[in-house]
Amino acid sequence: MKKSFGARTLLTALPVWCIGSYDADGRPNVMTVAWGGVCCSKPPSVTISLRKARHTYGNILEKMAYTVSVPSEQYVRQADYFGIASGRDVDKFEVSGLTPVRSELVDAPYVGEFPLILECRVIHHHEIGAHTQFIGEILDVKMDEEMVMEGDQPDIERIGPLIYSAHTGAYYRIGECIGKAFKIGRKQ
Amino acid sequence: MKKSFGARTLLTALPVWCIGSYDADGRPNVMTVAWGGVCCSKPPSVTISLRKARHTYGNILEKMAYTVSVPSEQYVRQADYFGIASGRDVDKFEVSGLTPVRSELVDAPYVGEFPLILECRVIHHHEIGAHTQFIGEILDVKMDEEMVMEGDQPDIERIGPLIYSAHTGAYYRIGECIGKAFKIGRKQ
To answer: Which of A125, A143, B4, B20 is deepest in the core (most CB within 10 A)?
Structure first.
């Protein structure tokens, strides 16, 4: 029996993306978001949503660029920290000991140690309400070579991305593969 | 050592959301998308991206409404099917044996058997390129009572949502919890 829980963002399995940006003085920052996703194939684009009060919000508007660094599960502690501290108060790269790498394509840094990186230039931004959506065209994807399968595809099992359970506030790892897409559903 | 893989949507862990809509004649349809995410807390909103050629695209524009039904892992076969077949050709609810339930809040059906449902009215739509983004305000969340934890939160372990590995084309289950958010990162 279904019960009503009201107008709330009660989703369960969300991404964990670390967003790299520079401020006006060129200081690197990184913050973790769960509110984002792929939004277009051509141009290849992702969307992230930020509150105006975030340090990263001003940085992205200033540079019209950001990176997405996808942490593997071994970096869960750092990814969580990037969502707790503010770049206004501390240099999160310095505190975490991770490396800001300057993108050669956009005016934003990425996390050198993380296995999967997107370099994005902002092509649209929309205010929705409490959050503003930044749509970033992916100019390049960079991966650690050992994370790549045949056919130049990212291997989810080697990358080991984190899954965020919003509201219950917990990070999960990826479990077993339970089916091939466009195949398992052919027979109903 | 990082290698460049070009301008592509090479993300790994994506959501599996089944989007319910009615066509102009009131026939229910459901399609699976991986390109979506939460995008605002106030109003509580989600975004999904669709190609114009999709049957669901016209349905949503007509009704300015959709639902998100989150399948649990036991429905991986049906969720995959909803992404393979087109509502132009078949009644996917009938073929899969699942139940279209009419939302009382928006002009769209949801999948009665799936554990977590969002009922959304479209508040914005943007053409990005090959895909159009539909931002839906969540008017209500419905859950099976046995999926809910203390504090009215969805229990990710009971719901058992699917994770989609794009490009390698596979579905994964959620694995173990590896840390509490806003806690594990406090100490660097």
So the answer is: B20
